[in-house]
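== Sequence and structure of one protein ==
=== Format: two labelled lines per protein ===
==== Data for this protein ====
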Amino acid sequence: MKGEVDLNAYLPPFLTRYGEMREILGAEEPEFTLLWDKAARALDNQFIDSADEKGLESFERLLGLQPEKSDSPEQRRTRIVSKWRSKLPYTYKALTERLALLCGGDFSAEPRFEEYALRITVHFRRYGDFLEVKKLLHEMLPANIYCVVNNSVGVTAEGGAAVYSAFLLSGKHKKISVNVKK
């Protein structure tokens, strides 16, 4: 598709004898060459493997990726392909495998797919870890699945009869339950 365009080849034979027509079309050829090159570039940018800098930027914007300044085009292309392939429809098994990696196997999942519901309980002490689970579920779960995620943290108090606690709450709704065992 790229290359020179010869508009004179499209002239009917009876017009080729007029020099004015050949000159007019000769003056138009650079514009058509530029047009064909831009069309070829647009086609190349539709595919990750053949995308140029502008095409890679478009894919990164689409996938929410931030390139590093030191990344080569091939590194960016690899990151784009990796993210693109991870956008496939997920299965429940794939979700539990990813949760197992993230939680170290310390979680429970109770699917009720006939009700389009899923309850997941994790056991993190650090807030950032719980956010990673929420991001994972946001990415992997279909929009029609109602998901309840609980972070259950066990606390043991030793000593006197008084137990003091403080909680920093963020978000719309939080439920805190305290079970005291003697």
The longest helix spans residues 19-44. Residues 90-182 form one domain. Residues 44 and 50 are 5 Å apart (CA to CA).
